Amino acid sequence: MRKSKLKFLSFLLCASILFYNLCFGASHSLYAQEASKEDESLFLAKKAFEDGFYEVSLGMLERFLKNYPASPKHAEVNLLIGECYFHQNRFLEALNKFEGLLSKPSSNNLKDAIFYWIAEVQFKGNNFDKAAEYYKKIIDEFPNSVYAPNAYYSLGWCLFQSQKFNDALKFFKVIEEKYSKEPQAKEASFKIIECLYNLKDYNALKDKLKQYLKVYAKDPGRLTYLYFYLAEADYYLNNFSEAIDGYSKASINTKDDKLEALAKLGMAWSSLKLKRYKEAENAFNDIKPANLEKRSLDVLLLGKAILLTETSRIDESRRVYDELLLITQDPVVMTQAYLGKADTLYNLSDYSKAVDVYKEAIAKVNGQDVPQDLIDKLHYGLAWSFLKEGEFKEAIKEFRMIAKESEDKVVKVSALCQIGDAYQDSGDYAKAQEVYDSILKDYSDNFYSDYVQYQLGLTFLKASNYDGAILSFLNFKKNFSQSKLLDEATYALGLAYFQKQDYNSSREIFEKFQDQFKESNLKSDALYLLGTSLYNLGKYTESIEVFKNIVRLYGQNPELIQKAEYEIADCFYQMGNEKEAMERFKSLRSKYPDSSLTAEIIWWLGEYYYRHNDFMLARRYFNSLIKDFPRSSLISDAYYALGSTYIEDSKYDEAIKNFKKAVELGKPDLAAQSTIAIADCFVKKGSLDQALGEYKDVIKKFPNFSSVIYPKLAELYFNMNNYDEALNYYRNSLDIVPEKEMGVIQFKIAEVLESKGKPNEAVEEYLKATYLYPGNNSLAIKAYLRVSSIYENRENYKEAQNIYKKIVAMGVPESKYAQERLDWIKANIKK
Questions:
Q1: Which of 251, 502, 755, 795 has the smallest CB count inside 10 Å?
Q2: If you count DSSP H runs as helices and E runs as strands, how many of each does the chain have, helices first?
């Protein structure tokens, strides 16, 4: 193709010169004879060139330069001399000749030709980057040149040879679209196919192949290769049945033994992917290894090993993997062999050995040219093996490496999800939240977004950050209304409201749940929490009906039935029907003697006596629960309840002892509450420094309890006369306490400032308590009285009178005192 192209271009140049001579040569008679000799000499040289007599042509062209030193055609002649050198493979001489022409003004009209031939010389020397530079000059500077079609095609070739397939593709497409009638068009179309194959753009490859076969169906020389490429596209697009058809056509129609072997290898792998193990085995066995190159032999062994694994011939597969690892020099195949061997061990639950193999593989492939997705799989396998071994830190380390190094966005996000899940499973909720938040921020449109949002909500829920959980699950419902996790997220939202003690909201969620998610496995749990929400709202009759429905609908779930019957008994107690309640509890205890429900009943009895201030009897039941049901989930609650009974009797050391047990055994929220209770005990004992340490320990371990701890710390510092710290904690409290508590905190800020001797600032803060929180009338009166007292102490009786008048106008019990002060000021203070 390239040789005929060169002759054609030279012919065009000769024809244009001959046309010039024919048109203008006869117009000057005196000049005609000399011109005709000159033209004749050049014509003969060009004719010899066209006929391929380059040595003869070269001699004629050199004599022309000698005989006609003043000829204006020297540049054209030198160009042809360079072309003669080129066709004689005297490339260095050709290059010198062409480059020499570049600096001569007389050759300006031949610049596109000079660029072209310099590019051709560089191409012949495999200097593709340099050749591409000159082909590009023709395209940019001489878009209408006769050399332009060849420049586009050859530039595509250069880029293809340099494996710049994307760039090459662009130029081959120009030939196909702009120069469709040129002889290069067909070649360009085939090169587009090869580019797409190398780029692994299998969808585009398949479309292009179909288009090519329509236009060039009668191209027997390439037909088998086209079938093979089509099969490869289908294979990598997971169209394995279509791939088998394509490989079969390529195998049948080719006379090339190597292509036939590759096609059969593709058929075998396609059958393996389709789990047609018998067909795969027959295809593997039908391949002649001698017809495969080394890498394809490795792929053959790898396929056989996977086949043996899939057909449960584990020992044989491990031997093949070991054989492959001994002989392969291909890092990709080696990696796949390691993966196969390690995955086999993992699936056999031999996690320790799997860890060793994954580690060995990672060490071997380090620095080798291995696709990132295979390296990701090694680290993934190692991470999961660590998880199975309980090595959370090591697992997280591997997942972090995947997230950092992987080029696949889905793999990155998946690894980050696993990091978040690992932190969550290990109880490190703060880090889990940080990871989930980063995924939602940095990869907002990822495939796992609904899962991440759900897990973030769960993490907040487990950390007892109910507001965070509610917000997260509400976002989930808003943004992922079609998610498969919608029922779980909705249930968790209801649970978060329930844990927050917002029972109206939890009731609303669980009432709708029954109709919204009729096929959900969580229906029974949601119904139970609906009944419990109604119970906590004091709607005992409605609650009983819900629990009776549970007994009627879920008889196949004994544990749930027992809990429902327990709740029914408790509802009767709450309704004041103690007789009915006691009968039901006694019946439950005899009906389910070995059930965990017995511990629930004992707990109920302990609570009953606690509520009735019979602390001795309450302690008896709580101690019985701890002793007789050591595996009950209520153990930590029982210790907490014991601690509370001792506080009521002012036995603070005993209380602290039991609260510490609750911290040791309890879930995060109970552990936090128990630590707070310990600190409260130290306050009551007067051990303020110890109390301070406990409160701060709660903030460190359970930051979501800051709204409870900050006001306590502020009060403690206030009692220790450390007004600066007290003020700091009260002001921070304003940002986190519930709205209903803000007025009290505001009042406390004013109180601290007054104690610090800053009456002006104190007055402002007291008045804020009245202006910003108008709903709390008693607080407003207290604030007004404090302000009036400050004014009186400063002998600012005018302002004091204004405040007292406000209190009188309010018509509250304190109005009488305010009037008395007004009367006193009027009688004793001169204006």
A1: 795
A2: 44, 0
Q: CA–CA separation, 36 vs 21, rounded Å?
A: 9
Residue 255 contacts residue 274 (beta carbons within 8 Å): no
Q: Which residue has the higher pLDDT, 658 or 414?
A: 658
Cα–Cα distances (Å) from 406 to 217, 375, 380, in that order, read 42, 8, 11
Q: Where are the alpha helices (DSSP H) in 686-813?
A: 688-701, 706-719, 723-733, 739-755, 759-771, 777-793, 797-810
CB 354 within 8 A of CB 381: yes
Q: How far is residue 697 from each of residues 48, 123, 504, measured CA to CA in Å?
A: 100, 75, 33
Instruction: Say if CB 544 and CB 568 are below 8 A apart.
Output: yes
In 3-state terms, what secondary structure has residue 255? Answer: coil
User: For 126, left (φ over 0), alpha (ψ -120 to 50), or beta?
Assistant: left
Asked if 438 and 416 touch (Cβ cutoff 8 Å), the reply is yes
Q: How far apart are CA 226 and CA 603, in angstroms?
A: 78
Cβ atoms of 140 and 111 within 8 Å: the answer is: no
Instruction: Locate 278 and state its tokens.
Output: 């018998």
What are phi and psi for residue 447, nearest 5 degrees? Answer: -60, -30
Would the pTM of this model clear 0.90, i.e. be above it?
no
Tokens 């703060």 sit on residue: 430
- 703-742 per-position pLDDT tens digit: 888 888 899 898 999 999 999 998 999 999 888 888 888 8
What the block records as the tokens of 730 is 């009260």
